[in-house]
Amino acid sequence: LAQHEASLMDLREALNRAVDVTREAQELNSRNQERLEEALQRKQELSRDNATLKATLHAASDTLASVFRLLHSLDQAKEELERLAASLDGARTPLLQRMQDFSPAGSKLRLVEAAEAHA
Q1: Cα 72–68–62 angle (5° rounding)?
Q2: Name one GO biological process term (predicted).
Q3: C-alpha of 29 from chain center
Q4: Rounded Cα–Cα distance for residues 60 and 35 (Å)
């Protein structure tokens, strides 16, 4: 009977340890469940942030492409302006020469008019 009672006490201790271990496992499981929910929520937030970031990067890429196209157009306009300025500078010398050629004729015009009036 004493041996049977000792066995029962051993079983009761084992049962109490099992209950304690089960309780600890439940607490650990509960904490892990909370952590999992937090991790899933954080994952959703990061996914939203990632989508926002991708959209922002796409918009920035489009803006940069527009800026590069505009810069290219400005470079072409600058080259055209420089070409036209060089062309005007090249035409200036012959125009000045022609003006000087006609200038003496302009001063003789009054002389011709005076001669016609005298005649």
Answers
A1: 145
A2: regulation of cell adhesion
A3: 45
A4: 36
> Domain tally for the chain?
1
Distance from C-alpha of 114 to C-alpha of 107, rounded to nearest angstrom = 12
pLDDT tens for each residue of 26-61: 999 999 999 999 999 999 999 999 999 999 999 999
The pLDDT assigned to 106 comes to 59
DSSP 119: -
The reply to whether the predicted model has a pTM over 0.90 is no
Q: Which parts of the chain fold into alpha helices (H)?
A: 2-118
Helix or strand or coil: residue 1? Answer: coil
Residues contacting 56, CB < 8 A, separation 6+: none
Domain hosting residue 81, numbered range:
1-117
